[in-house]
Amino acid sequence: MWSAAAWLRPKWHRTPTFPDRGAPGGISVVIPSRNGRQLLETQFPTLLQQAHAVPSEIIVVDNGSDDGTAGWLADEYPKIRVILSPVPLSFARAVNRGIAVARYSLVCLLNNDMLLEPDFFTALSLAFDEVPDLFCATAQIRFPAGVRREETGKAVMAQTTPDDFPVRCDEPLPGEDLTWVLYGSGGCSLYDAGKLRSLGDLDEVYEPAYVEDMDIGWRAWQQGWPSVYVAGAVVEHRHRATTSRYYTEAELNRVLEVNYLRFLVRAVDSPSLFRRLWQEALERQRKSGCGPAPCEAAQLIMDGGRLVQVRVAEEDFLALTDGSVALFPGSGTDILFMTVEHLAPPPADVLTRYKAVLIARGPLPRLAVQLAARRWPAATLWQAAGDEPARPLRTT
Prior knowledge:
35% of the residues lie in helices and 22% in strands. With 396 residues, it is an alpha/beta fold.
């Protein structure tokens, strides 16, 4: 049944329009907030201090609040733009309202439960100077003392066991920076506004939240637009400070699983990849008991999706964002690719000899070589495996 569905699901392709380059340089910060006045009061002092250091604007989407958020903002922060919604909107619908009025070339999506550490915007912005065609720069996510770290910013598509959710956050290695990731967290990431709009902004089918950030990151990779993890941009996350007030843990888990199935239908282009991921998801959900009923799953398939024309094979960017690759900046001139058994920071003497060192557990992803050659066109690419001496890497 599902094999046939991979081919029969309705889908339509459109080519994204070329990104608009006319927006002035700067950052538009979009914050959705539902009854989050207390969270904003905690967040704003540091946020405003950092935002004033760059051309910027702050847009708060007051999302059906009844805690006086709009009045407080008007009194205390009259320069902040407030978009009012009388009823609660999904995360995607709320931030899309903010994106629609954003004036600057970069858009930061920021949850109201994120506390910024110094140089947050500076570090994210610099990534766009370093990485060609960058779509998204995402921050390192920490949690309050004593709270288990559920997110890190290094999002990869991988499982420890078949029963795990297929996407996880890996613990970044010391010194790792600008490693490619599957997508940036919708709560603390900076996006190229033109590319974001060309993809149609966040897909509003994902109700009430979850997976919409993975969907847009996936679509960007299909166009060859990377997302990277930025070690120097750090936030502390008061996890689910809003959603946990309105939904139980069981409800949120079910929302996650249903939206993941929607993502597979709407974003995954390859029929064989869709079939594999769909079958794995249904088996995992059957064991956990938190997935949709078979008739609901079938309806998700028949609803189809807004697939776009794919320029980079999904298997290629998945090989780059499955947790087997890490990138380390150095101080030399050339680029070294190291094939290793276990991911670990390169020795200090190696980092002094190379501008960047990429370590890969297993076969070297060909997309990594292509992206490195694009980023460092004048550098010589070298490859080393185990104790073997480095040798020039053939890129043809």
